[in-house]
Structures are given as structure tokens and as C-alpha cells.
Design goal:
The chain is an alpha+beta fold. It has two domains: 120 residues, no CATH class; 99 residues, no CATH class. The chain contains six helices and eleven strands. A hairpin with a 2-residue loop joins strand 4 and strand 5. It is globular and about 80 Å long. The N and C termini lie far apart (78 Å).
Length: 275
């Protein structure tokens, strides 16, 4: 095994093997870095609402084992339809040219929740006429509000060894945890972990954290009406994004209840005595 590094010097002929080396190195480096990640958005891809447009920022997306680089913002117009709409990415490979292969990413809105093989979900929303699409939340449960709110729970993010929750979900959860007086040391450590990385939290780490916390408070990772389905998914080791989010909601509720049981934080008033 060898790596070729071309030397750009006067009167030297640049051989095709050296050009191939440059091409392969630039792509292979990032492919190796994320080879253990599942397909989906990997880094960046920040979502914003700007007027009547949805904007996806620069980022990295993995699909079919290939790393797509989004090097500029992408935007798409939306309007109130009062129907559920899914913002999706379409991953395309164009091999028509004899000189190159074009890997393209485009945005489109769809009313079908199911995804085709070359599609990834970015978010979903149901916007009523006369309302404004919100990208900010009142509390953690508000992230799942059915109307006029950007919902990223089912977004396709690739995590280490599996599909992961959107970093925007775990980041918001973590910021709330650090504000609450009822958070345990385990909650705080988990929050630091989430806030200290740019990629999505590993699905195994998230599942383990939720499971441990809900065992401690004697609850199961499920809403009552979905308990049977969620128990099956946990037993199989493959809880979906919604099941993980519901578990995080229950953890947050337990943290708030714990805050009410604890005495308030003691504060001391500083005094300056002038003689």
C-alpha cells in the first residue's frame, strides 16, 4: 500500500497517476471518516424559516455509502395548505457525461410520508391559512405540535451504526436539562455529551440513556396508547425516532417533577461594606 503525493515543480510533467491520487485522496478521506455512519444527514444542514421559504444550510449527507457535500444553502418556497407536508431531499446520480459523475441533492415538498429509495426526510409541518410557520418551541413537547410548527422528529439523520434523532432535538433537550434544577448528574453528563458534538448522538447511547432514566423513575419508553408497539421495538433493539422522542418527553417530565420535590437553590447576596 502506498500514497502518492504529487510534487508541483517547474519542468516536471504531471502524470495522470498523480492526478488520480489527488482525486482519490480528497474523496477517500471523508468517506473513511463517516464509513460507520448510517445513511442520512450527517453534519450541518441547519434548517431555517425565512419568510415564505425553508432554507437548508451547508452540510454533509450520506446516501448509498457516498458522501454528498452541500456547499451552499438550498431553499424552497412553501405556502399554507392545511395538509401535512414533508420536506424531502432527493439524491440523484447522473452518469450521462463521459467526463464526470454528477451527484446532486435537490429539495422538494411532498404530501406522502413514505419515502422512495432515493429520498430523505428533512422535516414535516401542517400550516394553516393565516398562521406563521414556527421554528422555535415553547417547551420540549412543543417540538411534536401538529400545526404551524416545524417537526424534525422523523428527519433522516445518520448516526454511528444506525439512524439517529436530529441534533436539533437532542440539543434543545440538553439545553432544557441544564436549566432545570431537577436534573440528575446522569442528565447533566448526557447534556454535555450532546452539546459537545456536531454530529447526531449515537442511537445506542440515546437508547441506553433513556432506558436507564426511565427505569429509575419506574416508567416505560412509550405513550400509553403506543405502549405495545414501542415495547416490541425496544425488545428488538430498534426503537424508532418517535419512540425515542416520547421517552425523552417522559424523562423531561420526571426532571420537572424532581425539581418540585427539591428545595430551591440557595443564593447569597453579596454585600460591600464601606468604612
Amino acid at each position: 500500500m502506498q500514497n502518492l503525493y504529487p510534487l508541483f515543480e517547474r519542468n516536471r510533467i504531471l502524470k495522470k497517476e498523480l492526478m488520480w491520487s489527488l482525486r482519490d485522496y480528497s474523496f477517500t478521506h471523508i468517506q473513511l471518516e463517516y464509513q460507520a455512519y448510517a445513511d442520512g444527514m450527517i453534519k450541518g444542514c441547519d434548517l431555517e424559516v425565512r419568510g415564505n421559504e425553508l432554507v437548508v444550510g451547508k452540510g454533509i449527507v450520506k446516501y448509498g455509502g457516498f458522501i454528498y457535500l452541500i456547499t451552499e444553502e438550498m431553499s424552497i418556497a412553501y405556502e399554507p395548505t392545511e395538509r401535512l407536508e414533508i420536506l424531502k431531499m432527493k439524491m440523484e446520480t447522473d452518469k450521462r457525461s463521459e467526463d464526470f459523475i454528477a451527484y446532486r441533492v435537490t429539495l422538494f415538498l411532498d404530501e406522502i410520508t413514505d419515502k422512495k429509495e432515493d429520498e430523505l426526510e428533512v422535516c414535516r409541518f401542517r400550516l394553516r391559512r393565516g398562521s406563521r410557520l414556527r421554528n422555535e418551541y415553547k417547551d420540549f413537547e412543543d417540538m411534536a405540535t401538529g400545526y404551524d410548527t416545524v417537526n424534525r422528529i422523523e428527519a433522516d439523520w445518520g448516526g454511528l451504526h444506525g439512524k439517529a434523532l436530529s441534533p436539533s432535538v437532542t440539543e434543545y433537550f440538553s439545553k432544557l436539562v441544564l436549566k432545570e434544577n431537577g436534573s440528575t448528574q446522569e442528565d447533566i453528563q448526557f447534556a454535555y455529551l450532546c452539546l459537545n458534538q456536531q454530529e447526531a448522538v449515537s442511537p445506542q447511547v440515546l437508547k441506553h440513556y433513556i432506558g436507564r432514566r426511565l427505569e429509575q423513575c419506574g416508567q416505560c419508553v412509550a405513550e400509553p396508547e403506543e405502549a405495545e408497539r414501542n415495547r416490541d421495538s425496544l425488545r428488538e433493539g430498534q426503537p424508532g425516532n418517535r419512540e425515542l422522542f416520547d421517552g425523552m418527553v417522559q424523562v423531561m417530565n420526571e426532571i420537572r417533577e424532581n425539581r418540585q420535590k427539591r428545595p430551591g437553590r440557595l443564593t447569597k447576596r453579596a454585600q460591600i461594606i464601606v468604612d
